[in-house]
Amino acid sequence: MKKLILAVMFLAIVALAADCSSTDEKTVAEKQGGSVAAQLDQANTKLDQANTKVDQANTKVDQANTKVDQANTQLDKAKAETKEAKEAMQDYAFEHRAEFTDMMKSKLATIQVELDRLTVKVENSRGGAKDDAKIKLKEVREKWNKAKVQLDQAESATAIVWNDVKSGFRKSYGELQESFETTRQWLSDKIEP
Question: Is the separation of the CB atoms in 121 and 147 below 8 Å?
């Protein structure tokens, strides 16, 4: 009987020890679980911050793409106008020299007015781009002057040299138109209105 009581006591002690051990394991697991939950919350917060930065970057990319689209639209328009002018120049025979030179004088005058407007805009601007803008406008004016000289030659050309003079003007005007559109776009990007 003593052995039985000892055996029961022994089993009771073992059961009690096992119960204490599982309680300690539960406490450790609860502490670790709380720590894991806190780490998970921190990770989610960092993920949300990263997603916000990605969204901001995407917005900037969208804005840049919009500007590129606008620039491409302006460039396409300039190319179309240049193409129209080139086609118009090709179609003019010597007999229509006066019509051709009148039309091209009008186009040069339009560019001159726009150059004057851009020059005023640059003069009224502030910032580091002002000096670069003056240089770019000067280059466009030089191309305008070259095209004007070519047009003056076309105006007084004889039938023998008409095609050569017309070709020279076509080249000068194409360079002027391209330089003008490129400079106008550059100014709209760099100079505050």
Answer: no
